[in-house]
Design goal:
The structure is a single chain. The protein has 13 helices and 25 strands. The longest helix has 21 residues. Strand 21 and strand 22 form a beta hairpin. Helices cover about 20% and strands about 25% of the residues. The chain starts with about 35 loop residues before the first helix and ends with a strand. The strands form five sheets. The protein has an eight-stranded parallel barrel, surrounded by six helices. It is an alpha/beta fold. The structure holds calcium ion. Calcium ion (CA) binds next to loops. The site of calcium ion has 9 residues, from loops.
Length: about 675
């Protein structure tokens, strides 16, 4: 998961510096005993959960299909006072709640050393190996296995950033390879000593052509091989995974897989991030992963995915996606939408012969408070429960050091802001059985409309609803719009309005722009050509063409330009004929500036059936002085031939003339 994209949102926030220290990790209360038999038993006694969610069964789902949730921030969250509940409303160990909902694997990221010299955590859960051990023990106690995600960095590693751990700086390359091997081995040995069952280990996180500061595949591959070797030695039964992001980038995964193969990296699983709003279609994901799986004989899976259950932010720290964010919104931001998003990722991976699982990223990274940014910030700083603390500046001054803050995914968790589980958490259970409840509207699609100020405002009678089964249906809508409102909108000039309504008991929203519709095409010459205007050059001007020069345009970059040196060499018309207009009153305007002319005869005109029926004179004087002609109203009947234009004739004083024409408008006029 990337963090850079949300950071601009918190630029305006102030920081309250807190001079407290402490790590986010806490020793768990549960025992670290490995409960393999219970894990096995748990898998066999899966019972379908009761739910109001619509869920279509996923076929070909094996009993051991990995249903994972990344819970890396959980200890810091709990240290910050966050409480998690079960569906009965009782406070309950979150690992147990996840297990009850069909989750069988917990993923945890490991940073080499996410602390400054004084022991202040960098945030993001302050996840060093000790935090991973504590999380692993909690997971084991709930019968869940652990997926360890080594970033090989002191803080976030992703496609934009793969910084080397501070302790490895200054080492020779071969020493770094050895350091990575030792770090992996010692970390895993700590987990082993604590009795944590580890089912998979990642060598690197979203290593799109870089890892631990290296960007050449030969180097990356050697580092990966060292990590893989350590994993095989400590946890021989665990799968070794590589992890990449951006499956939508054509050919990139094939390149990674080919390099891994060429350099002989020993791994079992080719894993991908898949965030539906960034990473292309599921069909593309399936095709890409399957190609690699077939060509190299590897297992494939989604190591990170997530989706929003609400568009709202609850922790005062901007979110990755949400209301108003410009991303592909394939599902509504509802609990059902979130469940459908996850269901479809599971369905896609399960459909692949070598597809082994899906992990949801940070399913519990909810707000640490509901009062203020300042209160939350104090906790993020003290416990590392935000994406970054100010202390991270010593390692990552340009990003974390500037934009540190809270959770960017509190609206993508499986728990609400109060720690109550959402129905969508049950998706890991329900995909095995299906739960085809009655189809009903789950969300409404917003409507965007434009109305002509001089036309009528005809609001649609239906809106499109996203149903709980992810289909679309139109449903009747009633808009909150009185005749009085309509009159105001028509008389208020060009303006934007948000109009709400009711459909299927939900709030419908229409974004309405009241505009003066321009019936002319290429009205400001921004097409970069003259068409469909027609130029009739009557005196052989030296220059007469559409020109790209913003400083000489009234609006935009382009305008119609003329210049001629000789006396009496400027005479032309610029005209556009307009088709398919309905009967009514219209107005026409066009603008010009220019100079160096003697006598001029310039006018804007309207021609009906070949006859000029209205004209208004224009003048050119000096540079920058635009003159606009307005023909305020003329009547037109459908079927008549209509054209509008400008006539320009300059003569006299020895010179020719120059000029610029721009912004022609043919609008409806009030009756
Ligand atoms: Ca947030």
């Amino acid at each position: 998961m990337k963090h850079r994209c949300l950071l601009l949102l918190c630029l305006g926030a102030l920081l309250v510096s807190v001079a407290a220290c402490g790590t986010g990790s806490e020793e768990s209360k549960t025992s670290g005993t490995t409960q393999t038999s219970e894990t096995e038993a748990g898998k066999k006694t899966v019972e379908k959960l009761e739910s109001s969610l619509y869920v279509k069964k996923v076929e070909n789902l094996s009993d051991d299909f990995i249903m994972g949730v990344d819970l890396s921030s959980v200890l810091a969250e709990e240290a910050s006072g966050v409480k998690y509940y079960n569906f009965a409303g009782e406070e309950q160990d979150i690992f147990k709640t996840l297990a009850e909902c069909g989750v069988n694997t917990i993923r945890v990221r490991v940073w080499n050393d996410p602390y400054d010299a004084e022991g202040h955590g960098f945030g993001g859960g302050n996840n060093n190996i000790d935090a991973a051990v504590a999380i692993g023990k909690r997971a084991a106690a709930a019968g869940l296995s652990l997926l360890v995600d080594f970033h090989y960095s002191d803080f976030w590693a992703d496609p934009g950033k793969q910084m080397i751990p501070r302790a490895w700086k200054g080492l020779k390359y071969t020493e770094k390879v050895d350091a990575l091997y030792q770090f992996t081995k010692e970390s895993l040995e700590k987990l082993k000593a604590a009795g944590v069952p580890v089912s998979m280990v990642q060598v690197g996180n979203e290593t799109n052509g870089a890892m631990a500061g290296y960007e050449v595949w030969e180097d990356i591959a050697e580092l990966m091989k060292a990590g893989s070797k350590a994993i095989r030695e400590v946890y021989p039964e665990a799968l070794v995974a590589v992890h990449f992001a951006n499956p939508e980038k054509a050919g990139s995964y094939q390149t990674y897989a080919s390099n891994l193969n060429f350099y002989g990296v020993d791994y079992d699983v080719f894993g991908s991030s898949y965030y539906p709003y960034w990473h292309g279609t599921l069909d593309n994901l399936a095709k890409t992963l399957n190609e690699i799986s077939e060509k190299y004989g590897k297992k494939v899976m989604v190591l990170e995915t997530s989706y929003a259950f609400t568009g709202e932010d609850t922790d005062f720290s901007g979110n990755t996606i949400g209301d108003g964010s410009a991303v592909t919104k394939d599902y509504p931001y509802t609990v059902q939408g979130q469940a459908n998003a996850v269901r479809n990722v599971i369905d896609t991976v399960a459909s692949l012969p070598q597809g082994i699982g899906v992990v949801y990223w940070e399913g519990a990274w909810i707000t640490v408070g509901t009062n203020s940014w300042e209160e939350n910030s104090a906790k993020w700083e003290k416990y590392g429960s935000g994406w970054a603390s100010s202390y991270a500046a010593v390692y990552d001054p340009d990003d974390a050091g500037k934009y540190y803050g809270g959770s960017a995914v509190d609206n993508q968790a499986f728990f609400d802001a109060a720690g109550k589980p959402l129905e969508s958490l049950k998706i890991f259970n329900l995909v095995r059985f299906g739960n085809e409840v009655e189809v009903r509207a789950d969300a409404l699609e917003d409507v965007t409309l434009q109305f002509d100020l001089n036309g009528s405002i005809d609001m649609p009678e239906t809106v499109s609803a996203v149903m709980n089964d992810d289909s679309r249906q139109t449903v009747p809508v009633s808009w909150n719009l009185t005749e009085e409102d309509i009159q105001k909108m028509k008389s208020n000039g060009p303006e934007k309005y948000v109009i709400t309504g009711d459909a299927s008991g939900m709030k419908a929203t229409a974004y309405v722009s009241m505009i003066e519709y321009n019936f002319l095409k290429n009205d400001s010459f921004e097409d970069g050509t003259v068409e469909p205007w027609v130029v009739n050059d009557l005196a052989g001007a030296d220059q007469l063409y559409v020109e790209n020069k913003g400083t000489d345009s009234l609006t935009g970059k382009w305008h119609m330009h003329f210049w001629s040196e000789k006396k009496n060499s400027v005479e032309f018309t610029l005209e556009q004929s307009v088709k398919d207009l309905e009967s009514g009153n219209y107005k026409y305007a066009i603008s010009i500036m220019g100079g160096d002319a003697g006598e001029t005869e310039i006018y804007a005109y309207v021609k009906i059936n070949g006859e000029i029926i209205a004209q208004v004179p224009l003048e050119i004087t000096f540079y920058g002085s635009w003159d606009t002609a307005q023909i305020p109203s003329f009547a037109y009947e459908a079927g008549q031939e209509l054209s509008v234009g400008i006539y320009v004739k300059c003569s006299g004083a020895g010179n020719g003339a120059w000029g610029k024409i721009d912004d022609a408008m043919l609008n409806k006029a009030s009756e």
